Amino acid sequence: MLRTTGLSKHFGGVYAVRDVGLAVGEGELRGIIGPNGAGKSTLFNLIAGHLRPDQGTIDLDGRPLGRLPAHGRAALGIAIVFQAARVFRGMTVRENVMVGAHAGTRAGFWTAALRLPRHSREERLIRDRADAALARVGLTGWAGRPAESLPLGQQRSLQLARALCGGPRLLLLDEPASGLRAAERRALADLIAELHRDGLTIMLVEHDVAMVTRLADRITVLDLGRVIADGTPERVRSDPRVVAAYLGEEARP
Ligand SMILES: Nc1ncnc2c1ncn2[C@@H]1O[C@H](COP(=O)(O)OP(=O)(O)OP(=O)(O)O)[C@@H](O)[C@H]1O
Q1: Distances from the Cα of 25 to the Cαs of 62, 162, 169, 205, in angstroms?
Q2: Going by CA atoms, what residue is nearest to atom 6 of ligand 1?
Q3: What is the pTM (predicted TM-score) of this model?
Q4: Which residues have C-beta atoms less than 6 Å from ligand 1?
Q5: What ipTM did this prediction achieve?
Q6: Among 104, 118, 181, 250, which residue has the fewest nearby CB atoms (within 10 Å)?
Q7: How far is ligand 1, taken at its centre, from the CA of residue 41, in Å?
Q8: CA dist list (Å): 7 to 18, 212, 252
Q9: Per-residue confidence in pLDDT tens, the chain, 253 aa
Q10: Residue with CA at minimum distance from ligand 1 atom 7
Q11: What fold characterizes domain 1-77+169-253?
Q12: So where are the chain's domains?
């Protein structure tokens, strides 16, 4: 479904992503791991269109995304949940999710974000989709409450619901479990596994290697912007280059 070829991005003299080639199949859950600064978030931002590559191509279903901006990619079904994303304060849980329904169109996003009046049938449709997404992540009972009143674990579920509300085909999750407690992590991992079982294609960046190992079909390991390993969780975990990259990280100050 997704293929990158020779993808590179540098900031000043530092390559954040260097000559990255990877292919993610339909319905696959791909883990992306690597030490701090390996280029994981940069890779996601390149795929979602928030950064432009210096070199390389990204294809979705065999078609190059080229210079298509982020909202155009969202309309094609690429959804990203950013690292440490916030909920919109002063809005209910449902309203937060409704913002995701029209993430694919700039006008729709702002209409929702600013709560501008909208055709009432369309509004109802979006509300139904938001409620379905909330049900999917187990937040139905919270729909009318202020988003900021949710515990952190459920704020992450809310962000997932917002991404799901747009009906994505490819979901990019950047460290969704960071800062969560053990029980919240487990609940989130279960939810991601369910979405995977339903056939959604997911790319998951996560520092919790045990969680990625449990969830992923395949894992791609980045170090200093390059792919150093790619394969099944078992193969990747025993790869000497991966072990060295992680041991190297522990040795860094
Ligand atoms: N906007 C930017 N400007 C300058 N340098 C950047 C920028 N974004 C990322 N970098 C650099 O690119 C490299 C890769 O960063 P990136 O955030 O993609 O790594 P990461 O693997 O997601 O790291 P972490 O696990 O710490 O989130 C790092 O050296 C980082 O300092």
Answers
A1: 11, 24, 11, 17
A2: 11
A3: 0.89
A4: 11, 14, 16, 34, 36-42
A5: 0.95
A6: 250
A7: 7
A8: 6, 23, 27
A9: 999 999 999 999 899 999 999 999 999 999 999 999 999 999 999 999 999 999 999 999 999 999 999 999 999 999 999 887 788 888 999 999 988 676 544 555 666 666 666 566 777 888 899 999 999 999 999 999 999 999 989 999 999 999 999 889 999 999 999 989 999 999 999 999 999 999 999 999 998 889 999 999 999 999 999 999 999 999 998 888 888 887 665 544 4
A10: 11
A11: Rossmann fold (3.40.50)
A12: 1-77+169-253, 86-164
